[in-house]
Amino acid sequence: MGDVAVGARSGHDGEEHRGRPAGADVPAADSAVTSGNDAGTAEDGMMMDELDQTEGRGSGGSAPAQRKQRSFWKELPILIGIALVLALLIKTFLVQAFSIPSDSMQDTLQQGDRVLVDKLTPWFGSKPERGEVVVFHDPDDWLAGEPTANPNALQTVLSWIGLMPSAEEKDLIKRVIGVGGDTVECKGTGPLLVNGKPLDDASFVYPGNTPCTVDDVGGQFKVKVPEGYLWVMGDHRQNSRDSRYNQSDKNHGMVPVDKVVGRAIVKAWPITRWGTLPIPDTFDQPGINDQTTASAALTVAPQGVALAGVVPVAVWRRRRSLKAASEAR
């Protein structure tokens, strides 16, 4: 509205005629705008006063309507709605909070801890790596017989927006020991071997536990992890129902990569236990990535045996045919 007032003032051209002689002839058409008679100065002053009085007014001289400030209570539902949408987007695509329900990952994670799980990097093709702590959907009734929580309405809403874990989704949290192509082995009480390399897992295995469990229900094993699968174990080795004890399921104890929700990256609550969840150094030791050596030997060996058997036979047949040809002569 102010622009209109300024524009009207800047278009007033009475100032242009103040320096003209009083008796100068002025075209009639101009006199209607600037008026060149003796009372011109007074009229100019009156016009300026009127402009000053009407400055800032809209068309028709009416005062500009002031925008009413919306009350806090009217804005609060909008703010809550925006916050819920943002929280839902973050939960779906970026980060989600999970609660630790058991002791299977002690001492790394305690029952009741809240962890934040990175859900973003898998969207860019990132795959779980050895040593990572991951959350994954139950691959094949690993949680059969476990009690199901009955959340109240508030807990349901909080789980929907990602501030609490969902009671309907059956998720587990374990450490990745082997990825596709790895050979994982436990003999006696350990150490745990990955591609023939012993893991120094004292920094994360529960104090007093042995790396391997001596039992006849899964604690002793040697497995080859297929591509697209993971072999997972809990840090509390003597109190974790992990890949070792689910080898009779349809995946032979393996976890399909597409069942992984994401990597647990931070212990967020309680605040006294805040900290990151890095990959232990032992998973980066030299030679642990040499997962193809043994399998290559297995695939090449039959070909070598076949070649070793075929060459003598071919030579013998060649000599026999030459001998027959010479006798015929």
Q: What is the strand content?
A: 15-25%
Structural class: alpha+beta
Write down the secondary-structure element order: HHHHEEEHEEEEEEEEEH
Mean pLDDT: 73
State the distance separating the first and last CA atoms: 122 Å
Total strand count, please?
12
Shape descriptor: elongated
Q: Work out the radius of gyration.
A: 41 Å
Protein described:
With 329 residues, the protein is an alpha+beta fold. It is built from six helices and twelve strands. Strands 1, 2, 3, 4, 9, 10, 11 and 12 form an eight-stranded antiparallel beta sheet that branches. A four-stranded antiparallel beta sheet has the order 7-6-5-8, with no helix packed on it. A hairpin with a 2-residue loop joins strand 6 and strand 7. The longest helix has 37 residues. The radius of gyration is 41 Å and the shape is elongated. It starts with a helix and ends with a helix. 21% of the residues are buried. The N terminus is likely disordered.
Task: Sum up the structure in keywords.
alpha+beta; four-stranded antiparallel sheet
Gist?
The chain is of the alpha+beta class. The chain is built from six helices and twelve strands. The strands form two sheets. Strands 1, 2, 3, 4, 9, 10, 11 and 12 form an eight-stranded antiparallel beta sheet that branches. Strands 7-6-5-8 form a four-stranded antiparallel beta sheet, with no helix packed on it.
List the topology elements:
Blueprint: H1 2-10, H2 28-34, H3 40-54, H4 72-93, E1 95-99, E2 114-118, E3 133-137, H5 153-160, E4 171-178, E5 183-186, E6 193-194, E7 197-198, E8 221-224, E9 229-233, E10 255-256, E11 260-269, E12 275-276, H6 292-328
Antiparallel strand pairs: 1-2, 2-11, 3-4, 3-11, 4-9, 5-6, 5-8, 6-7, 9-10, 11-12
